């Protein structure tokens, strides 16, 4: 079935099928979609797996980031990793056979990522992986398994840092790996300008000119382990003795957090926020506490110190440059420096040029 929104002229362009399903992927997809729209040789169709199926975690990002509506959307979130990935694999294979893309573009390290990469590889469709080469070296994290497998299935690997390129080389992947910088830098430039004009979250919460820290907790390795989540909650509560904490609560942990923090007025639990509201909070906060990979970098792009609520991070540059530290690290603080590898907000254009050159467009 042909997409009715595609003109006959566009049908002659190189067709990229983009698979997304979670908030970080929507954010990364936005600047690349804008770059594709500027291309004379490419067109894009977006598939949304529904991995984040809550409107507050999904729909709002498409609207705010000005991403075209997906040509297909499923509701395949929930359930165990194997079941979710299997259902996605089946649905995506059917879509790829129907839409016949020239390449499939995947982002990051979610179940949507590996399902998209695996479905494409089995159909002999070239896989393009944005944010390739990242490694936490913790195979207990499902995200680590997803990113490693996606890299080894990909024809083009777009790496945000030299460390990512080296990680791939150490695994025998050199052909197709490109250092392009971080598309999150592109996205943050867009978000900073938009959030100033559109977000009222800081005034709505009544925290203008009040010092606060921004906190998020959602990763499965934390939220699914009761003793570990208790330890992290204790850590956050200890920080709340020094500064007010604003915590947009993920659906995964909202019940536990409400129960624990019900009598702690220094910790402000709020509903999940939109993309521009998050950047407005980043711009106004003193520092960040998070287990989110994306928020670690967004904190850096806002030049805000970050404490990562994990035992390791794939974004080692933020640690080395002194902007980030692990919650269990008691070593002296590092001197702060700039992270040149992340680029200056031109990564999306580099990615599009590489795709066009690789496929002779």
The level of helicity is 40-55%
Strand content: 15-25%
Instruction: Name the helix and strand elements from N-terminus to C-terminus, one letter apiece.
Output: EHEHEHEHEHEHEHHEHHEHEHEHEHEH
Unreliable residue runs:
none
Radius of gyration: 20 Å
Mean pLDDT: 92
Counting DSSP E segments of at least 2 residues, the number of strands comes to 13
How would you characterize the largest beta sheet? 7 strands, parallel
Structural overview:
It contains 15 helices and 13 strands. With 361 residues, the protein is of the alpha/beta class. Helices cover 43% and strands 16% of the residues. Helix 1 (23-38) crosses helix 15 (347-358) and helix 3 crosses helix 4 (111-122). 48% of the residues are buried. The two termini are 25 Å apart.
Search tags:
single chain, 361 residues, alpha/beta, 7-stranded parallel sheet, 6-stranded parallel sheet, 15 helices
Summarize the structure.
This protein has 361 residues and is an alpha/beta fold. 43% of the residues lie in helices and 16% in strands.
Write the layout of secondary structure elements.
Layout: E1 14-20, H1 23-38, E2 42-48, H2 59-65, E3 72-73, H3 81-99, E4 103-107, H4 111-122, E5 127-130, H5 142-153, E6 156-159, H6 162-170, E7 177-179, H7 183-198, H8 201-204, E8 212-216, H9 220-223, H10 226-239, E9 244-248, H11 254-261, E10 267-270, H12 275-284, E11 287-290, H13 293-301, E12 306-308, H14 316-320, E13 324-326, H15 347-358
Parallel strand pairs: 1-2, 1-4, 2-3, 4-5, 5-6, 6-7, 8-9, 8-11, 9-10, 11-12, 12-13
Helix pairs in contact: 1-7, 1-15, 3-4, 4-5, 7-12
